[in-house]
User: What shape does this take?
Amino acid sequence: MPGPLLDTLKGSKQETAPVWLMRQAGRYLPEYRELRAEKGGFLELVYDSEAAAEITFQPIRRFGFDGAILFSDILIVPHAMGQGLEFLKGEGPKLSPTLRDADLSDFKPAKERFEPVYETVRQTRKLISDRVTMLGFAGSPWTVATYMVAGEGSKNQEPARLMAYKDAGRMQAICDAIIEYSVEYLRGQIDAGAEAIQLFDSWAGSLAPDEFEKWVIAPNATITAAIRESHPGVPVIGFPKGAGAKLPAYARETGVDAVGLDETLDPVWAHESLPDGMPVQGNFDPLLLEAGGPQLRKRVRTIIDAFQDRPHVFNLGHGIGQFTPIEHVEELLAELRGG
Assistant: This one.
């Protein structure tokens, strides 16, 4: 029997919205911090399948979420493509050499780096009940490309945006390569036990409308079609953060089964603007979860009421912050579930 989250992503409305939180497996949990202190750096944890499965399971054990999101990172794809990757304390990810200084042909592919992630999915699937949906994911091509070009997170994604304007053919080749690796990676996750996948386009909001069509909608449509061809019936959630008014076009043209909403969107507008019956996910503000208080409970009700007539997965508008108090997550769940 599929759980309520998988049923919702397939278009069935639930009496109580199923819930999972982006980055629910991570730094706000004391058990995660303890394990990381024992095991070492972030990337080492990602490639340690036993530890990564335990981290994926930690929020399920503590909160009883309806979905378990794979503990990994969107930059595993460029790492498998052969680009160097390290996570520096206090600085975030660094990729080298950058695609401003090198070509894709300079990289030596290392697809074996996908294997520990597949094993994490297999091990997590053994830990969770059938009622909990196993969620895999990948970064969308545009967002991954911004890191590969700049070598790190960048303000307004300027290096990649400049490349897209100056040399669209080169950017297309980069995105095509990311698509190829991402499709293989997602298919491997599904074969290992992922029941639904999410495409994270964290930097979609930095693009002008015609560039959004080219670098967000088109690549995500290609990936979604490939997954549908090889694994029909596995829902694809698209999350183009910052899409704003472009979200309805994304929902119609990419072919995704469900869309994630960031916290800046009016849920009433989203309900009125998106295709009838399309499942939605989000859009609670992670900072409000960190803040807590009466506004937290009020906003839960506002979102639930806005989506009462369509399938809805309760989630955040982006990842949970590392300083979020555990009791605020418990408060959110109590309000949502009537506890």
